[in-house]
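haha ok so turns out i had the wrong file open the whole time. this is the CORRECT one, sorry everyone. sequence first:
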Amino acid sequence: MPRALPGPYKNGNFTIHGAPCCLLPQGYGLTETCACNFVAFPNLPGQEGTVGPPTGCLEARLEAVPEMGYDPMANPPRGELCVRGDCVFKGYYKVRTVQ
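then structure:
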């Protein structure tokens, strides 16, 4: 699981010294989409160990990739993550076409 915080990580929980009673949200995003696509808050049931639901500005879905064995209807679901919305960037700065 990706992480940016130092310190021990076990069963979806960080042990952070010096920050008692602090709820730390976990997020997921890509520079090619927007800063944060999904946010999980540890005080909401069912969001522990996940990236959480999509932010309000975008829609997301998993797309099947048969050649990699990815099936969004499998258990657990796997697939290519596709997002869209007003917060998704339109292109690279000063680049007219995708190369």
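The beta strands are 9-10, 13-14, 26-30, 34-40, 58-63, 80-85.
again sry for the mixup
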